[in-house]
Amino acid sequence: MTQTTRKSFAHYSFSADQNLKTIKLKQVIEDSRYGPRFSNSLYDDNGELWQLRTTDLDGDGNINYSTIPRVKLVTEQYKEHLLKEGDIVISRSGTCGITAVYRSQNVPTIPAAAFLIRLRLNKKMLPEYLNEFFLSPIGQQLTSSLARGGVQKNISGSELLAQNVPIPNLERQKEVVANLCNLKSTEKKFKKRLFLLQEFKKKVLGFVLNR
Question: What angle do CA 72, 78, 84 make, to 5 degrees?
């Protein structure tokens, strides 16, 4: 129920029915690029860089920083690829359209080569707002329509940047993000309570059956 409510609100917030002004994505992007390529042999638990992969992202816009592998690369040589606070990463290969907002870590981090696009926004749009747009049913439909290829589908970075995205004023952006965050929090609490109830039910049934 809570997930349905969240998706309905997200659909409403980004819907064309709201007469929202739209803008080409590239107009709110300060910089975008793919991750660098390097040999798999450079993965090393003692490496000085992390490489963020699609598998470190979930479908709800979160990054699992504990699963990111280290790579033996020299940070200075990959400065242009380093992720910064507020960067958006979006999967462009395989499972296309998974997004998250990167939060600064103690370990310098680069996105996976050819699998993630890094989007660094200008001040016209909040990273959290664009992330919620991509996570919404409308945003997911957009990225799905851009996926090309057979078994291994891919999204073209240039084609992605050419798409129209809604751009209300910053106050409205903050409002949408806050409401969706609240709905996610409620959904998480509901799932936890449901899990605890199911566990309690199992214990009661086990007690009754073993009497």
Answer: 110
Tens of pLDDT, residues 46-98: 999 999 999 999 988 899 999 999 999 999 999 999 999 999 999 998 788 99
Which residues on neighbouring strands pair with residue 67, listed in sequence order? none
Q: What is the pLDDT of residue 24?
A: 96
Give me the half-sphere count of Cα atoms (radius 13 Å) on the Cβ side of residue 80.
7
Task: Assess contact for 14 and 163: CB atoms under 8 A.
Answer: no
Answer positive or negative: Cα dihedral of 157, 158, 160, 165.
positive
Distance CA 160, CA 181 (A): 25
Please provide residue 52's backbone torsions phi and psi, each rounded to the nearest 5 degrees: -75, 130
Provide CB contacts within 8 A for 93, sequence distance 6+. 54, 114, 115, 152, 153, 154, 155
| Rounded Cα gap, residues 60 and 6, in angstroms | 12
Q: From CA 12, how far away is CA 10, in angstroms rounded?
A: 5
Q: What gap in Å lies between CA 75 and CA 77, rounded to an integer?
A: 5
Q: How many CB atoms lie within 10 A of CB 159?
A: 11
pTM score, whole prediction: 0.84
Evaluated on CA atoms 8, 11, 16, 22, the torsion sign reads positive
